[in-house]
Specification:
By secondary structure, the chain is α+β, with helices and mostly antiparallel strands. The protein contains 17 helices and 15 strands.
Length: 492
């Protein structure tokens, strides 16, 4: 959500006032777009990485308050579940040695935090879904103590009017219900932010949507949920269902979900914010005293807090972001597609692939989104979530092909071109994209390693299911801390 809220009850008048204020924010935003009031495009990125906490047995540790107190670093914050925390990496440059520096800084921060977390009997794991998380851990009191999470929980369930149903058919089948949004906390992600101009935003957002399936295929890292092996990136289906505010009847009527891929290519960032206001009722109708038009009239920058708060409760896989830094507004594409992990170097390699590819596609004279339907991009996304690195996806001029072959033959050269356009150091570029190349050549990413190691312990070995998941996660954690790329991880 990104906003602190302390209201516990909302009236009809609150909702009416919030809706009116969102529309006034939209009017102000449209005027800002017309008057070109935004910061220029810079090769800047920020990264958010969500983490899981485990105890000495590699089971979930419900200690995020204790861990954060021990870490004492403002870069680390609470997340939805008490077994989650998040690191917000300060914005940095993509060009030159920027990605290399970012990798080193993240590693240093995580290593220091891990050492302090150990004093609480906890350890951090960077993974899309914690493999040892079971249904017995999904209870209302597992929510973080920050009041905003309880409020969000209450508002979602007030909108739903019934329990959450999680139903996923994969290698195994899962059917569970929950009386809170805690299952959403199982979804731990990596989010890449890319600052762009209003004019460039549609191209970058469309490009990010077009490659989302390929990103998932090579970066999948969430094969297990509640002890069952499901999809290679189970986090996608879980998040779509756990944060769904619709009843069965509203789904049947075609009401749009709050976790949303979208339905069309765009021509302006305004399209996305306008869709948010048109399609979605407010979950947290907290209004400010700001009159954004008056703020613009006196030459200042409005916060547009209602627009931002509402946007934060609609979970697009590629989300538009309006922000103000040092009184200067700017826009970002927030790429929310990928899971956390497996290592810092894998994360930065995923980032390099994304930054390079979207830059090349955004700069292309014949845009990829003019050659493929939006529904084809969405189908790629869900196919990749199901099958991971073995997924077959559609690409214009190629047809349907293995995602790994598409990356090796077509997309890696584009990513090279894009990183060169950003001004990334050649050695940094080659090292990071080389990790993506080797992942595709070996056919091994986080999800495939987890599944293979689990089956060695469970199917072929003498471990029970729960102990096999613990044993796999223990090995995963060791490799993660060594920062060895996942394609090099052994199976034992």
């Amino acid at each position: 959500m990104g906003e602190e809220v302390d209201r516990v009850e909302f009236t009809r008048a609150d909702r009416t006032a919030f809706r009116e204020q969102v529309h006034r924010n939209l009017d102000a935003f449209a005027r800002m777009l017309r008057e070109a009031r935004f910061a220029p495009e810079r090769p800047m990125t920020g990264i958010e990485i969500e983490l899981n906490l485990v105890d000495e047995r590699c089971d979930p540790a419900f200690k995020n308050s204790e861990v954060l107190s021990a870490i004492e670093d403002d870069a680390f914050q609470t997340e939805l579940g008490q077994f989650n925390i998040e690191i917000n990496v300060p914005p940095g440059q993509i060009d030159g040695l920027g990605l290399d520096t970012m990798e080193s800084n993240i590693r240093d921060s995580l290593n220091a935090a891990e050492e302090k977390a150990a004093r609480t009997g906890s350890s951090m794991v960077v993974v899309g879904i914690l493999p040892t998380l079971l249904t017995e851990h999904i209870r209302r009191d597992a929510l973080s103590t920050n009041p905003r999470y309880a409020l969000l929980n209450d508002q979602i369930f007030a909108a739903r009017g019934e329990d959450v149903e999680i139903s996923i058919d994969g290698i195994e089948r899962l059917r569970v219900t929950a009386d809170s949004i805690v299952p959403e906390a199982a979804c731990t992600s990596t989010q890449f932010h890319l600052q762009v101009t209003p004019e460039a935003f549609p191209r970058y957002w469309n490009a990010a949507q077009a490659i989302s399936g390929v990103q998932l295929a090579v970066g999948a890292n969430s094969p297990f949920l509640f002890g069952k092996e499901l999809l290679r990136e189970t986090r996608i289906a879980l998040f779509e269902q756990a944060a769904d505010t619709r009843t069965h009847e509203l789904k049947t009527q075609g009401v749009r979900p709050r976790v949303w891929f979208g339905e069309r290519w765009i021509t302006s960032i305004f399209d996305l914010f306008e869709e948010n206001s048109r399609y979605y009722p407010a979950l947290l109708p907290v209004t400010s005293d700001e009159d954004p038009i008056a703020v613009l009239d006196r030459g200042d920058t409005p916060a547009l807090s209602e627009l931002r708060l509402h946007n934060g409760t609609i979970y697009r896989w590629n989300r538009p972001v309006y922000d103000v830094v040092r009184e200067k507004p700017h826009l970002r594409v927030e790429n929310r597609v990928l899971p956390a992990g497996p290592t810092v170097v894998d994360t930065i390699a995923n980032g390099a692939f994304y930054f390079g590819l979207v830059r090349a596609l955004a700069d292309d004279e014949r845009p990829i989104w003019s050659q493929m339907s939006f529904s084809a991009a969405e189908e790629n996304f869900h196919t990749a979530a199901r099958n991971g690195i073995e997924a077959e996806v559609f690409w214009p001029g190629v047809g349907t092909a293995r995602a790994t072959e598409l990356v090796l033959r077509r997309l890696l050269p584009l990513a090279v071109r894009g990183l060169d356009a950003w001004g990334v150091d050649v050695a940094v570029r080659d090292r990071l994209l080389g990790i993506i190349e080797q992942r595709c050549l070996s056919g091994r990413n986080g999800a495939s390693w987890q599944a293979e190691q689990f089956h060695v312990l469970y199917t072929k070995g003498s471990h029970g299911r729960r102990d096999a998941l613990r044993g796999m996660l223990r090995r995963y954690r060791d490799h993660m801390h060594a920062n060895t790329p996942v394609h090099e991880w052994p199976i034992d």
